[in-house]
Amino acid sequence: MPGLYLVGLLIAIAGIAVLDARYRLFFWRAPVRAAVVMVIGLVFFLVWDVVGVHLGIFFIGTNGLLTGVLLAPDVPLEELFFLVLLCWTTMDLFGAVRPVVERLRARRVDGPEHHEPEFHGPERHEGRA
Amino acid sequence: MTGSGTYALLAVPFLGAAVLVAVLAGVVSARRRRADHPGAAARGRRSAVLAGVVAGVALLVMTGVFNNVIVGLGIVAYDPALVLGARVGLFPVEDLAYSIGAVLLLPSCWVLLERPCPRPDPRPDPGPGPRPPSRPVRSDRRTEPSRRPEETP
Fold it and tell me: How large is the average pLDDT for residues A24-35?
C-alpha cells in the first residue's frame, strides 16, 4: 500500500514528540536550539545519503510502500522523515539519560565513600551535602 | 570507488567530522564549566559522555529493529558488491554508522549551543521561551543556589 512507510514514520515521530513534550527533552526544552541541531543533523545525513546513492551503495528496493515522491534520485521523501525520526530519537534519549546520569553521579560524589579522588577539592563541598 | 569496503569507507569522513565536533564540545563545555563552577568541569563532561554512551547503546538497539524492518520490507536495498557482507539480521553492519554518527554529532551540537553566559540570578526571567514560569525546568543538576537554568531560549 503506497504511503504506508510514511504513515509508520509519522506515527513514530508523533510518539517521540509526545515523549519530548511530556518530559521536556528537546524541542520542548529549547525550541530554537533544538531546531538548529535538527537542521544540522538533517543536512549531515542527507549529504551522507546522497553520496551513498551516488556511489550506488544503497537505493530504493522493491516494495509498494513508498509514496513515490523523490527528493533526489533514489532519495525518497520518506528519507527526510526517517532522518527526523533518527535525530529526534537521539536527542530524546540524550535529554532523558543525561539528567539521570548527572543525578546518580552527584549522589555518588556526595556520598561518604566516593571513588573519584580527582574530585577532591573545594568544589565538592560547595552547596552539596 | 568500488569494492566491498565502499560503504564502510563512506562512513569514515562523516564519523570523523562527528568525532571532531564531539571533541570540540568536550573542550568547550569543560572550559565553560571551569569558568562557571571551578572544579566541576570534569564531572559535567563525564556525565555528558556517559549519557551519550547510554543513549548510543539504546539507539543502536532501536536501529537494529528498525533497519531489519525496512530492509525486510524492501524499502531500501544494497549493492552486495559495495558492502562488507557482515549483516545484523538483514541489514549491513555499516548502517549502524548512522546511529553512531547521530549520537556523536547531535548531543555535541546541543552542548555547544548551550547558552555560554550563565546569569547570576538563580531564577531569571524565563524570557520569550515557551516554558511557563510556574513550572521550572527539570534541571540536570540538583538544586544549587548558583545553578544556572538549563536553558532559556
Answer: 98
